[in-house]
Amino acid sequence: SQQGEEDPQALSIQEGENATMNCSYKTSINNLQWYRQNSGRGLVHLILIRSNEREKHSGRLRVTLDTSKKSSSLLITASRAADTASYFCATAPRGTYKYIFGTGTRLKVLA
Amino acid sequence: ETGVTQTPRHLVMGMTNKKSLKCEQHLGHNAMYWYKQSAKKPLELMFVYSLEERVENNSVPSRFSPECPNSSHLFLHLHTLQPEDSALYLCASSPQRESRDTQYFGPGTRLTVL
What we know:
Chain A has 111 residues and is mainly β. Chain A has strands at 5-7, 10-14, 19-24, 29-37, 43-50, 55-58, 61-66, 71-76, 85-93, 100-101, 105-110.
């Protein structure tokens, strides 16, 4: 596995359901960020959680961070068709400024 | 809109061509980045510029040549590319070259090398 690996690789749900994506990483980090990418477009920043935070909310998004397990989860509640996208976590190993991205979770929300 | 624009959005070129990708950020940021995104692979950091100085070159082949004339503009000059260089090239910027800063991405240039 590599730094910043998302799970599952693909997820298909019905509109209105919740979607949960997980991210695992290998080294100690300064913070972890989640991004969304619509097909063939740039990444849009969703939320940043610092290493001393355990949970963070932004609208329908809830992110948790467990530094002891080196993992994070992104929960999207009451999903909408417009949430269909790929979701990436990015981690910056402690002592560096370089973010390392995973391969992403492809989420499909069916109307 | 993230405040980072990229042109062109699509580019098809032969292996002997020379072309350039352009990135412009309107956010007043001091750090700019080039990433390569290939199918089913993680984003690869190619180059990092901080205050117009290149501070990172992640073992990128010399057929890719970056240029940062000022803190708002970033170019990626391409020459004698290979078909495996076909990918989505993403530009990003951040306030500083620090891990606490969020990176803002442009929409990308879809490059196809024939």
